[in-house]
Amino acid sequence: MESSGSDLAYDVFSRQCPSRGTLEHVTGRWGALTLGALHEGSFRFNELRRRVDGVSEKMLSQTLHALERDGLVHREAQPTNPPRVDYELTPLGREVSDRLLALIQFVEGRMDDVLGSRARYDADGARGGR
Q: N or C: which end of the chain has fewer CB within 10 A?
């Protein structure tokens, strides 16, 4: 994974490459939706959980920890009673979410094509043992 000098080259297709884990955090269901939601602004945990419909408290917590560890999300605990914790994107997280939202918008814009393909596939019935 290391090349000449101090430059590092990463190869997500190599199982040892650390970029693979970050890609999984970003592109997994909850990571992608969490980054997309946080693109809208800062959220408290329960606000974010409501925005990312269907995510459990445990999965959202794990997702936020992973994204924070990767430097994509900033967690800010306010010294109030009761404690207040806000989550927002870091500059790196915003850059990643910009790219991710472009993909999300593309997929949403092509869903009629996808749904048509699914219907044709399903209408053809079993395909050679699949």
A: C
In eight-state DSSP terms, residue 52 is S
Identity of the amino acid at 57: E
CB 49 within 8 A of CB 60: yes
DSSP secondary structure, 68-87, as one string: HHTTSEEEEEE--SS-EEEE
Instruction: Give CA angle at 93 (82, 105), nearest 5°.
Output: 110
pLDDT per residue over 58-110, tens digit each? 999 999 999 999 999 999 998 888 888 999 999 999 999 999 999 999 999 99
Compute the half-sphere exposure of residue 124: CA atoms within 13 Å on the CB side of its CA: 10
What's the pTM? 0.83
Angle CA(43)–CA(49)–CA(50) in degrees, nearest 5? 95
- Cβ–Cβ under 8 Å, residues 24 and 5: no
| Dist CA 5 CA 14 (whole Å) | 21
75 strand-pairing partners: 87
